[in-house]
Design brief:
- This is Regulatory protein, luxR family.
- One of its GO terms (biological process) is regulation of DNA-templated transcription.
- InterPro entries: AAA_16, P-loop_NTPase, Sig_transdc_resp-reg_C-effctor, TPR-like_helical_dom_sf, Tscrpt_reg_LuxR_C, WH-like_DNA-bd_sf.
- Residues 866-931 form the HTH luxR-type domain.
- Strand 7 and strand 8 (329-332) form a beta hairpin.
- The strands form two sheets. A five-stranded parallel β-sheet has the order 2-3-4-1-5, sandwiched between helices.
- Among the domains are: 11-211, Rossmann fold; 216-259; 631-719; 875-929, Winged helix-like DNA-binding domain superfamily/Winged helix DNA-binding domain (Arc Repressor Mutant, subunit A, Orthogonal Bundle).
- The chain has 49 helices and eight strands.
- With 933 residues, the chain is mostly helical.
Length: 933
């Protein structure tokens, strides 16, 4: 009955209220709907301060007004029992029209308004309260009313009594009563706790508690209030921990170059200031310890005896400032609370407490990270350096490269200020910096690794690592120069083996490609002589890549099986080997084996914390591509759910660009937003430019905008070298655009340049035949070239279908669409219908909505009818479609069929995709034409 009509709240505020809260709003709306039907109800809405209760209630109030309810809102205040019925008096002041007349006719209620008799003086007999409650019940029966009592954690005893009375006595009145309260203000002895426990047992009461928003919802919220910088928003999301109000304040502070607004700091500190002196002392010690602290450690640092400490902790925990964490520790309820308490400490107090924690932690094992933190804060730089290096080593062992880099980087920043730093660290400055750079690269920050290495004095080891990371960053010239310098400087042994292997890798795509095999072979021999397993693995990968380029797949797979058989001692090399093995299997059509190999690599990356390393990232998008090519699009979208839209780093942008494959092919609305976030990376990352530009071109073509598509194609081609096989797909997309535009003269050059990578390898060499997918794209380029010249070439399109039929479900269906067109134009209507029906079925099963729409248009133009064609919809989809045709929204469809709103949404999307519709109305119309309704 109720609809979200945004009348009383601004668009931005309403949108913000709904982000991540649709389920909670639905539950509140259900209570309101029941009240509209004559079944009064109560909803208790709880959540931490700033979690979004007020925004949600404002949205409900807007819906209530749109449905003819009078809305009365009363606010409790932090005054204890000094002013009884304060929120009720506040609410009654908002009575208008018929309600105001009813209020004037009830003198007992009128006493609550300004100028009325103080009820607090008369309530001891019980008569006045009984009269008041009876008058209130009669007042609420006059017309439909939404009564909101905000901040019940501050309510007086009389208001709590009224809440209980109304919750029990409201029956058939058209009344919806909403009470809000802060869960973080309810200590164990709070009087509202007992009331809530009693009310939640009543069948007429609905309890709704708002939990923190997840990362995606928080990012959506920040965008809705004007956030644009992905890195800044990422930091805000981390610090806000799911609280929208905190996020809003932090975003404002970050925009001004500060850490926190004064208002937010005051709000957080106000709760700590209510503590006793002993409890404040303990809380300050806990803030110095960090977000979490051990019980014994905190007690020792506080200096309190057992009983005094226990009393202080009971007070702190009961007020919700710290919570129990694990079996024997505590954690701040929110990280920002720890931050403001810590910031409020005096400098001397802070330093002394850090020193005490450092003293206590030296007696414990495995506390290097905490020790480094306390040593640094207490200005013990020597202790901080030694502890930071040990913490970095420990993080490496635990598979936490980002943390390892942070610890090593801190040690490097202290190096020049600490006498005898090399002895304390256990390695020289170059060794520590190289280790820090490797950790940065393993966490996905190649540019940070490169920058760190470039600041070091040149050596064979430094130049080899620099060259390796430059290759991953697509800086070919710099990589070749650094690798050559490493070989020239390296002594015989493992260092030379690594330098030779990296030099061979650096030259692979260069004009000096012919030098690669001799160098890789020499590296392999040197590695085996010097027992350098990592260099051996690197050389084997390069030799296998050469074999694959020459179409010697058996040799390539033998070499890669050898490279991946055992660990090389370098996880980055192991992941590179597994990725290359899976890539070769994928490119040559062995999708099943490629999936097995990729899954193995993903497990290794996850277990070792290398998800964001170069090849950890590559394995993730390769696994996505295998699902995509095999037609497992639901699984592909599950993988892509981890590819963020609002990206802030090159690694995130790479993954995000791959998600476009399915999103463009399924016609998802998110495509435009994803492209807008990827745009800043187009000029700095070749892979992102190629992927995003190519798929932006396809997106434009599905929208009948070939000019824009051609602009994307030409821009993407500028970033690629002429013999890169990626050119074939991009130029094929360009030929599609030229064919739609009828520009045959440009098509000739596009086709010739598309053919170059099919015969020319890196440098000046030749290459063996392309894999199945490459050959299929080349066949399609030729077919699009014929189309650009206005020729109907059935055999060209038949060859494309056969070429993609190695297992590429979507491209086979898309090629059948063009084949059906060509057959129809040639007069072979029966064959055209056959190809069309197969394409329709495959497009529907994939949910490829743009392709389904194109096929539907072709079917209308051709007047194809196929009575024997099986129903494309499942039984559940038929049920959903019938209710969509009745005009029901998703929520009501879910209630009718007893399924979740999200499930309904998935079914509706699938129906639209199968019927080639872009809206619910179009889907219903198409279903009627098809005889499905």
């Amino acid at each position: 009955m109720c609809r979200a009509i945004l009348t009383d709240v601004g668009w931005q505020g309403a949108q913000s209220a709904l982000i991540g809260r649709s389920a909670e709003l639905d539950r509140l709306t259900a209570v309101l709907d029941a009240a509209a039907g004559g079944l009064a109800g109560v909803a208790l809405l709880g959540g931490d301060a700033g979690i979004g209760k007020t925004r949600l209630v404002a949205e409900l109030a807007a819906q209530a007004r749109a449905d003819g309810f009078a809305v009365l809102v009363g606010q409790c205040a932090e005054l204890g029992d000094a002013l009884p019925y304060l929120p009720l008096a506040d609410a009654l002041r908002g009575a208008r029209g018929e309600l105001r007349e009813a209020l004037d006719a009830r003198p007992v209620l009128g006493r609550l308004l300004p100028g009325g008799t103080d009820l607090g003086q008369e309530s001891t007999s019980g008569l006045t309260q009984q009269q008041l409650f009876g008058s209130m019940l009669g007042f609420l029966s006059v017309q439909p009313v939404l009564l909101v009592l905000e901040d019940l954690h501050w309510a007086d005893q009389s208001t709590r009594d009224l809440l209980v009375f109304l919750s029990r006595m409201l029956q058939t009145e058209h009344v919806c009563l909403i009470g809000t309260y802060r869960t973080d203000d309810l200590n164990r002895r709070h009087p509202l706790r007992r009331v809530l426990a009693e009310l939640k047992r009543l069948p007429s009461v609905t309890a709704v508690e708002l939990s923190p928003l997840d990362r995606e919802e928080m990012t959506d919220y920040l965008v809705s209030i004007g956030g644009t910088d992905a890195r800044m928003m990422g930091e805000v999301v981390d610090r806000a921990e799911g609280n929208p109000f905190y996020a809003e304040e932090l975003l404002e502070a970050a925009s001004d170059g500060s850490l926190m607004t004064d208002g937010l700091a005051s709000l957080l500190l106000s709760r700590a200031e209510l503590l006793s002196d002993a409890a404040q002392r303990v809380l300050r010690c806990a803030a110095v310890a960090g977000r979490r602290v051990d019980h014994d450690l905190l007690q020792q640092a506080s200096g309190l005896e057992n009983l005094a400490f226990d009393d202080a902790m009971r007070e702190i925990v009961s007020r919700g400032l710290l919570r129990l964490d694990g079996e024997y520790g505590y954690a701040f309820r929110h990280a920002l609370l720890q931050e403001v308490v810590y910031t409020d400490l005096l400098p001397g107090e802070r330093t002394r407490t850090h020193s005490e924690f450092a003293r206590l932690l030296t007696l414990r094992e495995g506390a290097a990270a905490e020790l480094a933190y306390h040593y640094l804060a207490s200005h013990d730089l020597a202790g901080a350096l030694a502890a930071s290096v040990e913490a970095g080593r420990r993080a490496e062992r635990l598979g936490a490269p980002a943390e390892a880099h942070r610890h090593f980087d801190r040690a490097l920043s202290l190096w020049d200020r600490v006498p005898d730093a090399e002895r304390l660290a256990g390695l020289d400055h170059t060794g520590l910096a190289t280790r820090s750079a490797a950790a940065a690269a393993d966490s996905g920050d190649n540019h940070r690794a490169i920058s760190q290495l470039r600041r070091l004095p040149p050596s064979a080891e430094v130049n080899e690592r620099l060259a390796y990371f430059l290759i991953d960053a697509d800086e070919e010239k710099g990589a070749i120069a650094a690798a050559h310098a490493a070989v020239e400087m390296a002594p015989e042994g493992p260092v030379l083996a690594r330098a030779l292997a990296t030099y061979a890798r650096a030259l692979y795509w260069s004009e000096r490609h012919d030098e690669v095999e001799p160098l890789a072979t020499r590296a392999l021999e040197a590695a085996r002589v010097s027992d350098a397993a990592d260099a051996e693995t690197s050389a084997l990968i390069t030799l296998a890549s050469l074999a694959a380029l020459a179409d010697d797949i058996p040799r390539a797979t033998r070499l890669l099986a050898c490279a991946t058989a055992e660990s090389s001692g370098n996880l980055a090399f192991d992941l590179r080997a597994i990725f290359t093995y899976a890539r070769v299997q994928y490119e040559y059509g062995d999708l099943g084996e490629a999936a097995v190999t990729a899954d193995r690599g993903l497990r290794l990356a996850h277990e070792t914390g290398l998800n964001w390393s170069t090849y950890g990232t590559d394995l993730r998008f390769l696994r996505f591509l295998i699902h995509y090519v095999a037609g497992e699009w639901d699984l592909a979208e599950q993988v892509a759910a981890g590819f963020g839209i609002r990206v802030g780093t090159p690694a995130e942008a790479v993954l995000s660009s791959f998600a476009l494959f399915v999103e463009v092919a399924r016609g998802r609305p998110v495509v435009e937003e994803r492209l807008s976030w990827l745009k800043p990376f187009w000029s700095s990352d070749v892979l992102v430019s190629y992927m995003a530009r190519g798929l932006a071109a396809e997106h434009a073509l599905w929208r009948n905008d070939p000019e824009t598509a051609l602009e994307h194609v030409n821009a993407g081609l500028e970033e690629l070298i002429p013999n890169d096989p990626a050119i074939i797909r991009l130029r094929t997309t360009g030929l599609w655009a030229l064919a739609d535009l009828g520009r045959a003269s440009e098509a000739d050059d596009f086709l010739e340049r598309a053919k170059l990578p099919a015969v020319n390898g890196p440098g000046s060499g030749t290459r063996g035949p392309l894999g199945p997918e490459g050959l299929a794209w080349l066949a399609r380029a030729e077919a699009e070239w014929h189309r650009a010249h206005g020729r109907v070439d059935v055999e060209a399109w038949r060859a494309v279908v056969e070429a993609f039929d190695f297992g590429f479900v979507y491209e086979t269906a898309r090629s059948r669409w063009r084949l059906a067109e060509a057959l129809l134009a040639s007069g072979d209507r029966a064959s055209a219908l056959k190809e069309w029906e197969r394409a329709v079925q495959d497009a529907a099963s994939l949910g490829a909505q743009p392709l389904s729409a194109a096929l539907a248009e072709l079917g209308r133009r051709a007047r194809f009818t196929s009575p024997e064609r099986p129903n494309l919809l499942t039984g559940r989809e038929q049920e959903v479609l019938a209710l969509v045709a009745e005009g029901l929204p998703n929520r009501e469809i879910g209630e009718r069929l007893f399924i979740a709103n999200k499930t309904v949404s998935v079914h509706v999307s699938n129906i639209m995709g199968k019927l080639g519709a872009s809206s619910r109305t179009q889907a219903v119309a198409a279903a009627r034409r098809e005889g499905l309704l």
